[in-house]
């Protein structure tokens, strides 16, 4: 049992997983990851009792930990396989990062907020997770470590950053919410060849804005 976990929280996670199944999450690996990861430990103690409600919750730096359904939905669309090299844009609390690691991926994650970067870098190893974390502008990706099998963007973008498309392997997938600052459509891009991409559109979501050179410039 993870330090700080309890049978009560484990029971609440089982209920959450049942809810996610009813909402259309079928990927067993994703469901098992959510069942295992103690989401309450990613939150301030004052709101830990809300951890297994299917809702986004506040974290440091005026950001949020995404709704569990959103995390599961994006991860399922990505189709993560063991040993996939994945670039995550927007580390945030690190919860989505841990879901990817549970699925056997090698994760490189970029966070632009120093407060979040520092606390998440310190916190994740206490749960036994060791992704490669960077502080910087996620809209530019991390070409040094690319190309990537998969890229996941956990903030709403005005358009798909060209730099991220360039860092995908052929056959690779990018999942990103694209739209205005109030609502975004989930997009799945598959790289078919050099400068050749297919694009599928899915449901609407609401994310915090993707800030950066190829995002919302603030």
What report would you give on this structure?
This protein has 218 residues and is an alpha/beta fold. It is built from six helices and nine strands, in the order H-H-E-E-H-E-H-E-H-E-E-H-E-E-E. It has helices spanning 7-22, 28-36, 68-78, 95-102, 114-123, 162-166; strands at residues 57-58, 64-65, 85-89, 106-111, 132-135, 148-153, 168-179, 184-193, 196-205. Strands 5-4-3-6-7-8-9 form a seven-stranded mixed β-sheet. Strands 1-2 form a two-stranded antiparallel ribbon. The protein is globular and about 50 Å long.
Nutshell version of this structure?
It contains six helices and nine strands; from the N terminus they run ααββαβαβαββαβββ. The chain is an alpha/beta fold.
Q: Span from first to last CA?
A: 42 Å
Mean pLDDT: 96
| Oligomeric state of shown chains | single chain
Uncertain segments are: none
Helix-strand makeup class: alpha/beta
> In sequence order, what are the helices and strands, one letter per element?
HHEEHEHEHEEHEEE
Overall body shape: globular
Strand order of the largest sheet: 5-4-3-6-7-8-9
Q: Say how many strands there are.
A: 9
Number of helices: 6
Strand coverage percent:
25-35%
**What percentage of residues falls in helices of 4 or more residues?**
25-40%
Work out the radius of gyration.
16 Å
Tell me about the largest β-sheet: 7 strands, mixed
